[in-house]
């Protein structure tokens, strides 16, 4: 039977778990992006210490800052969801509860990303 | 079907504490803290959308003693997750798995995270804050 199998089986990396390496790869990709983006964000936040509303809004509205913020926020929520997923997989064993919690975490992460990006866009494009 | 009575593999309480356990557990714990922190970043951005009063409320909370204590803890959680995350990426290239190296890089994550936290807060407390 194995003669009828093509190498695409290996290429896709899907075993009996029916999922492949996407989780691992996306976790590492977002982690790599976040190494740079979080350091930038830390410096950005430190530069805003004591800033009033007008200064803070103007800083977020600067094109480079707005672009990097959006990148940071999407990568952060994505990475957070991937990480929490693994923790929940390890500790929540009731399958119905696991489904509910995993879905909730995904919804909150996506909502958090959408709301954050909306906020940055609104500030950057004129409040 | 899984049998409920099957033997379980040994868990945390069986083992003597080692730095490698601590770094692994701390990576998860700080990850959970940072995931919650992500929502606070969203909240901060939303206050900028809502208006000056909301932003002032946000900065007042951040400037209060409990806000500062929280931000200090958040800084360390971030610094640790960053340092240990870089260590994990390096290990993904199959580097640093000899026991002595593994232990040393574990301590490096912890010590570097404490140094970054100290540097950031030295900047904040010694005149970084205008």
Task: Label this structure with key terms.
heterodimer, A: 127 residues, mainly alpha, 3 helical TM bundles of succinate and fumarate reductases, 5 helices, B: 130 residues, 4 helices
Overview of this protein structure:
The complex is a heterodimer of chains A (127) and B (130). In chain A, 78% of the residues lie in helices and 0% in strands. Chain A has five helices and no strands. Chain A has helices at residues 8-12, 22-47, 53-61, 63-91, 95-124. Chain A is elongated. The mean pLDDT of chain A is 92. Chain B is an all-alpha fold. Chain B contains four helices and no strands. Chain B has helices at 19-50, 52-63, 65-92, 99-128. In chain B, helix 1 (19-50) runs antiparallel to helix 2 (52-63). Chain B starts with 18 loop residues before the first helix and ends with a helix. The mean pLDDT of chain B is 92. Classes of the chains: A mainly alpha (127), B mainly alpha (130).
What's the quick description here?
The complex is a heterodimer of chains A (127) and B (130). Chain A has 127 residues and is mainly alpha-helical.
Q: Which secondary-structure class do the elements of chain B indicate?
A: mainly alpha
Secondary-structure-based class of chain A equals mainly alpha
CATH architecture descriptor text of chain B = Up-down Bundle
Q: What percent of residues of chain A adopt helix (DSSP H or I)?
A: over 70%
The number of strands of chain B is 0
Number of domains of chain A: 1
Strand content of chain A: under 5%
Q: Most extensive interface: pair and counts?
A: A-B, 33 and 30 residues
What's the CATH topology name of chain B? 3 helical TM bundles of succinate and fumarate reductases
Mean pLDDT of chain A: 92
- Kindly report the average pLDDT value of chain B: 92
């Amino acid at each position: 039977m194995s003669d009828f199998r093509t190498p695409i089986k290996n290429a896709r990396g899907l075993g009996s778990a029916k999922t492949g390496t996407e989780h691992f790869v996306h976790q590492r990709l977002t982690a790599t992006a976040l190494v740079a983006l979080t350091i930038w964000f830390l410096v950005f936040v430190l530069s805003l210490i004591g800033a009033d509303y007008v200064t803070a809004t103007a800083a977020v509205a600067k094109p480079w800052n707005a672009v990097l913020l959006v990148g940071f926020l999407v990568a952060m929520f994505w990475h957070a969801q991937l990480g929490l997923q693994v923790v929940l997989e390890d500790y929540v064993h009731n399958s119905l509860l696991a489904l509910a919690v995993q879905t909730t975490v995904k919804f909150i992460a996506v909502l958090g990303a959408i709301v954050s990006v909306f906020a940055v866009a609104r500030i950057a494009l004129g409040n | 079907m899984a049998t409920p009575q099957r033997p379980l593999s040994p868990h945390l309480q069986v083992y003597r504490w080692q730095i490698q356990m601590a770094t692994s557990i701390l990576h998860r714990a700080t990850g959970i803290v940072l995931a919650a922190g992500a929502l606070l970043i969203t909240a901060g951005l939303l206050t900028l959308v809502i208006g000056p009063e909301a932003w002032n409320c946000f900065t007042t909370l951040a400037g209060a003693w409990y806000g500062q204590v929280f931000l200090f803890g958040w800084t360390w959680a971030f610094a640790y997750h960053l340092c240990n995350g870089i260590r994990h990426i390096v290990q993904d290239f199959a580097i640093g798995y000899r026991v002595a190296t593994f232990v040393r890089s574990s301590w490096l994550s912890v010590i570097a995270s404490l140094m970054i936290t100290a540097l950031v807060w030295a900047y904040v407390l010694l005149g970084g804050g205008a």
